[in-house]
Amino acid sequence: MTSIGDLPEDVLVELLSLLPARDLLRTCRLVCAQWRYVVDLTTLWKRKCQREGFYLQSLDRTVSDWKTFYLLCHLRRNLIKNPCAEENFQHWKLDLNDGDKWKVEDMPGAHGRNIPDPTVHKYFVTSYGPCLKSQLITLKQEGYWNQLMDEKRPEIVVKDWYAARFDCGCRYELTVRLLSEDYLVLDEFHPEPVVIEQWSDGVWREISYTFQNYPAGVRHIWFQHGGQDTQFWAGWYGIRVTNSSITIGPMT
């Protein structure tokens, strides 16, 4: 009597590639030596990448581990919650909230311009006193297990958008830290603060940084940004920030 174990390898690859990755790794791989062999095949994970739209012909010679590539593509999303102020200040910790405090305004705002991304409709704006807000991301809670982070060290890409009002000078600052389980700093991106003079163009600008080859042991990512106006005017004349993102991408 014929069983599933009698199927040709290519047919078994096609069938198993239809299953979720979690089932393949936690269940199917434990069935027998044959299934473990098939689940570990590069062709199975490449087929899953093709099936779910993660595959590009140009990647053939650059992807060294199709299983990790698939898992990282599947997990990839913005880890910053409420990046565009659609939920007011939910998910953000207001570390400094001086002057007339943080505020949410609609794009483009007084003496401002629209951001290039038409899906972004709101931004956070600072006042004449220092205003800083942050989020702490715990990687295991987001699906990135310790072994993956320690052995593969996938790229961690940080992006943020900032702009000034046309009629007021302001200051923007950003700090991103990769933290251990005990919240020790393993790596950090902390560029010099950006000072924008009064009567600027008011254009939204993106700042971007990619963490690579960082130490093993990264378990959390801490993101903080903000600033203030430099004229010390009452109201909300300080730096504007929105569309922040942290993504963990596949190494190719």
Automatic annotation (TrEMBL):
Q: Which InterPro entries match?
A: F-box-assoc_dom, F-box-like_dom_sf, F-box_dom, F-box_only, Galactose-bd-like_sf
Q: What Gene Ontology terms describe what this protein does at the molecular function level?
A: ubiquitin protein ligase activity
Name this polypeptide is given: FBX6 protein
One GO biological process term? SCF-dependent proteasomal ubiquitin-dependent protein catabolic process
Q: Where is the F-box domain?
A: 1-48
The UniProt keywords, alphabetically, are:
Ubl conjugation pathway
Example GO CC term: the record gives:
SCF ubiquitin ligase complex
Question: Which superkingdom?
Answer: Eukaryota
Transmembrane feature ranges: none
